[in-house]
Amino acid sequence: QSELNSFLWTIKRDPPSYFFGTIHVPYTRVWDFVPENSKKAFQQSHIVYFELDLTDPYTISALTSCQLLPQGENLQDVLPRDIYRRLKRHLEYVKLMMPSWMTPDQRGKGLYADYLFNAIAGNWERKRPVWVMLMVNSLTEVDIKSRGVPVLDLYLAQEAERLGKQTGAVERVEEQCHPLNGLNFSQV
């Protein structure tokens, strides 16, 4: 395992700095495959910077706002009618299926299908098409079954806070959001 490419880069200085590439998937899917050298580097670090600070309420609020269409516009106004109708039918199907997609563990933790659907797809008619596309891609049985498990970035941020590490972010929400919002309809 020590020979694996762990997506960990070391910047040789005193003390050393590390650069670790993560992916946005539930940490439980990848944690057992993160090599020990990466886990050790995280444990030994006093300051940890993330792509975005997912523990900051402002970041979450800004991400939510950035996804919205301009005031007064709805998805129905910007999507072709047939695509809008197919999307609406698909979301109705997902909402109907979601209770059967949830795990007993999720239900045991008090997670309800309606709540989960609204947390993911709530206000979908006000979102920009690119964000609706990303949302629809995450509304699958496999993804629903892993809801409630933080993605790797968030897990590491929560661990850093729990361990009293100083945290920060290397990007602002706008740096992530504006390029996606700049895609034209045919690109989306």
Automatic annotation (TrEMBL):
GO molecular function annotations of the record: metal ion binding; metalloendopeptidase activity
GO biological process per UniProt: negative regulation of Wnt signaling pathway; proteolysis; Wnt signaling pathway
Protein origin, superkingdom: Eukaryota
Listed Pfam families: TraB_PrgY_gumN
Topology term for the membrane: Single-pass type I membrane protein
Enzyme Commission number(s): 3.4.-.-
Keywords attached to this entry: Cell membrane, Glycoprotein, Hydrolase, Membrane, Metal-binding, Metalloprotease, Protease, Signal, Transmembrane, Transmembrane helix, Wnt signaling pathway
Keyword RNA-binding recorded: no
Subcellular location: Cell membrane; Membrane
Record GO cellular component, one term: plasma membrane
Cofactor binding annotation: Divalent metal cations. Mn(2+) or Co(2+).
Cofactor(s) this protein cannot do without: Co(2+); Mn(2+)
Role: Metalloprotease that acts as a negative regulator of the Wnt signaling pathway by mediating the cleavage of the N-terminal residues of a subset of Wnt proteins. Following cleavage, Wnt proteins become oxidized and form large disulfide-bond oligomers, leading to their inactivation.
Family: Belongs to the TIKI family.
Stored PANTHER family: METALLOPROTEASE TIKI, METALLOPROTEASE TIKI1
Protein name: Metalloprotease TIKI
